[in-house]
Amino acid sequence: xxxxxxxxxxxxxxxxxxxxxxxxxxxxxxxxxxxxxxxxxxxxxxxxxxxxxxxxxxxxxxxxxxxxxxxxxxxxxxxxxxxxxxxxxxxxxxxxxxxxxxxxxxxxxxxxxxxxxxxxxxxxxxxxxxxxxxxxxxxxxxxxxxxxxxxxxxxxxxxxxxxxxxxxxxxxxxxxxxxxxxxxxxxxxxxxxxxxxxxxxxxxxxxxxxxxxxxxxxxxxxxxxxxxxxxxxxxxxxxxxxxxxxxxxxxxxxxxxxxxxxxxxxxxxxxxxxxxxxxxxxxxxxxxxxxxxxxxxxxxxxxxxxxxxxxxxxxxxxxxxxxxxxxxxxxxxxxxxxxxxxxxxxxxxxxxxxxxxxxxxxxxxxxxxxxxxxxxxxxxxxxxxxxxxxxxxxxxxxxxxxxxxxxxxxxxxxxxxxxxxxxxxxxxxxxxxxxxxxxxxxxxxxxxxxxxxxxxxxxxxxxxxxxxxxxxxxxxxxxxxxxxxxxx
Length: 488
Known about the structure:
alpha/beta
C-alpha cells in the first residue's frame, strides 16, 4: 500500500497519530513501526509529543515504495498501516555521513566528506531567535560543515526550557531546580520530572537540526556533559533516567540525516559515571538508532597519550573524538585503532584568560594543517566575548564570527577538497632556508606548488624531473606547505 506522500531519499517521513493523553504517556505507551521496502524491514521507535499526539519518524534510504505497520501496547496505536513513495535525493542531499576507512569519511551516496567542524555548545538554549538566525547565516558563509552542540544546558544558564518539565508538588530534590514557572517566566527552584519531556523544548531543538540540514551542516549532538554539578540534576541521573532520555532523543532525531551522536563531552570530568556507564549508553544508542549514525565520545583530562584516552576499540564507536592541543600527535590515535580521528577540541582562537581559549588565529590554523597532514581532522572554536558589548563567545552561544582563522580554514578546505589525490606536506612555523622532501614512490613526474597558508597564495615551483627527493626553498618564511600533484 503506497499513498501519494512522497519523500526524497534520506529525507524524513513523519507519521502522526492520536492516542491517550491521560496518565503518563511517556512511560505508559510504547510505540514504533516496521517500515518495509521489498524484503527489507527497518524498525523505528516512536514517541509521545504531548497532548495525545504520537509520532514516528523514518529516514528511507532506498527509492521506491515503502509500507509501514505500527506496533504498540495501546490498541488504537497498534497495527496502523500505510505507505509512501521515496524519490531521488534533491541537490545537496548526499545522505548521512559514514566512516569509510581508518582515515576517511564518506556520505551514503559515496561522495567524500571532510569534517571541518566548529563548536557552538549552547546556541539553541536561550531561544534567542535573532542570535540563532545570525548563527545560521554565519555558518552558511563559513567553511564549517559540522557543529558540536549540547542537548543539555549547564549550571550557569537560565534557559527558558529544559528537556524535562518541572515536578508537580513535593519537596525539591537537593541541588536541583524546578522548571515550573510563573506565566512566561524562567524556571524556579525545585526539581525536574525526569519521567516526562517538554515537547516545546524538543520542537525548538529539532527545528534547528533541520536548519543545519538545509545548510549541509552536520549536527554533532552531545547527549551528556559534566557541567551541571548538581544544579539541574542532569549529570548524575540514574541509569534508567539516562537511557529513558537517550531513547526519546534517538526516536526524535535519528531520522534527520545530518545527526551525529557524541555520547558525552569531557566524559572523564563526570565523577558520577564510570567508563562502563558510558559504554552502556553508547551501546544503547547503537541499538536504538536504526540508521547507525556516527557515534563517539570526547575526553577531558585524559589527553596526554592514547593509553589514557577513551578506548576507541569499543565496537560502538565509529570514530575517535579527541581533545588534545597538538595535532601532530595524530598517529598516537591512528596507529592503535583503525578509525578516523577528529581533534574536536584543539584549543580556541580568542582572548579568554584560560590557556585553551586564547590561541592566535595563526596558532589554530597551524593545528588544522598539522592534523590534516598527519591524516586526521581538526575542529574550530572561537572565544571573542569582548568584541561587542552584547556578544557572547561563539563556542558557547554562536552569534558572529570574529577570528582571523576562519577565512584561512576556508582556503584550506578548498585546497583539500579540490585536490583529494594530492599530497600535502606542512612546514609549520619552522623558518628554514630550505627543506628536503621525499616524493611519492613511482607515478611521477610531479608538479609542485608552494602554499602560503596564512596569506592564502599558491606559487608553482619549477618543473621537477622524477626523483626521490626535492629541495623546497622556504627562505625562512613561516606557515608554508607543499602540494605534490601529478604533472599534466
